[in-house]
Amino acid sequence: MDLKNLIKMEILARGVGRRKEAVAQVQIVKGTGLFVINNIPAQQYLHNNTYSMLSVKAPLNALNSATVPTENAVITTEPSENSQNVNSNQTNNQLVSVSTDVLTNFEKIDTIVKVKGGGLVGQAEAIKLGLARALCSLTTNEIGISEEEMRKQFKDKGYLTQDSRVKERRKYGLKKARKATQYNKR
Prior knowledge:
The chain is of the alpha+beta class. 46% of the residues lie in helices and 17% in strands. It has a single domain (3-157), classed as Ribosomal Protein S5, domain 2 (2-Layer Sandwich).
């Protein structure tokens, strides 16, 4: 992808994620479903690491799986009567149509990531947080899900929680944060 093409694209949402020393800037633009990290396809950038790929795409997969009801799923309403069962079937059909719209909308979205610092695992976690934040800032009419509902799904799965653990600083008189020289009695 060229920088000129990135400038011409309409940016739908942005998000920033951090983990350890890694900082990821995520942009969601209209496109064909590409996932690009530092102008390299995500699979290639993450060295075909399955864990990292699953971690990075987890917010997208969670959103898709949460909105698509299974065939055997039954949506329960108030105490059932015949008229309410008909309404239940109608809402089920509406949910299926909304979820297929969501899936087609995500296929039309490109995810462009700039990430620096840290290692691959830290970068993958930073991208996951940035992507979840960017998806939460998308407007409702673009994906068909309300912002509150999306935030609740992400919050319940822990995608919006920043992992604040970082490397401990080195203290004077020690070799590392806690490593001291060997004690010598004589």
